[in-house]
Automatic annotation (TrEMBL):
Residues 64-216 form the N-acetyltransferase domain. It comes from Coniochaeta pulveracea. Gene3D superfamilies: 3.40.630.30. This is N-acetyltransferase domain-containing protein. SUPFAM superfamilies: Acyl-CoA N-acyltransferases (Nat). One of its GO terms (molecular function) is acyltransferase activity, transferring groups other than amino-acyl groups. Pfam families: Acetyltransf_7 (PF13508). InterPro entries: Acyl_CoA_acyltransferase, GNAT_dom.
């Protein structure tokens, strides 16, 4: 969860049903990945860049990215939200691509217009030293794509004069989500430190009513 992202909350039953196979597959992969050796050697070369803005008009690509992000978030954060919650939509993804804020990770030597070669993405707002929506294909576990996306975001902020990178992690209030704790631990291993904890209702009032359980935003930072 990043403060730079505006969420769309219009998921209807038909959209949820269409996403369900991807959600189930993502949940299985995430469960398996929690037991995976995080020191796995990358098996393939990865290229990360901001796609050409013209790819915002590639309907298949945009829909693939949108569905992948929503499936990953619905799996990882299902415990937090009511059924009305959705992470993003195609219009938002198009805007991110056009504005040059959504970086994509591809398999090396792949056709960048082919959605099935995408391994992950990250939204970067370099001017504010923030990133969010870092998502990886669960099938790419062990390739190092998550760490490379994080490094790409940090390097982009550095190139543009930023000195600090920030992010927020959604976590339970009075209870703990295991996956989110693993995610926090991963960020700590990558140099992030907890700066403060904010009431979710104060930080994201526009979607607080969609919470199924009490939650907080745990805010991390890293000096670059």
């Amino acid at each position: 969860m990043g403060s730079t992202i505006t969420l769309d909350n219009s998921l209807n039953p038909e959209e949820r049903a269409r996403l369900q196979p991807a959600i189930d597959a993502t949940a299985s992969a995430l469960k398996a990945s929690s037991k995976h050796d995080t020191t796995a050697t990358p098996k393939e070369e990865i290229v990360i860049s901001y796609p050409d803005p013209s790819l915002a008009e590639n309907t298949e690509l945009v829909e693939f990215i949108t569905q992948s992000i929503n499936a990953i978030y619905l799996s990882a954060e299902a415990e937090f939200w009511t059924e009305d919650f959705i992470r993003t939509n195609t219009s938002q993804v198009q805007d991110f691509i056009r504005s040059g804020h959504l970086a994509l990770a591809w398999r090396a030597n792949s056709d960048q217009s082919n959605p099935h070669d995408i391994m992950g993405c990250v939204y970067v707002k370099a001017a504010r030293g923030e990133f969010g929506m870092l998502c990886c294909d669960p099938n790419a576990r062990g390739t190092g794509v998550g760490r490379k996306l994080l490094q790409f975001a940090e390097d982009d902020v550095r190139r543009k004069g930023g000195k600090v990178m920030r992010l927020e992690v959604l976590q339970g209030k009075g209870w703990a989500n295991e996956f989110k704790q693993q995610l926090e631990d991963w960020y700590v291993r990558n140099g992030y430190v907890l700066e403060r904890v904010e009431a979710f209702e104060s930080k994201f009032p526009e979607i607080a009513t969609l919470l199924a359980k009490p939650a907080v935003a745990r805010c991390f930072r890293k000096e670059l």
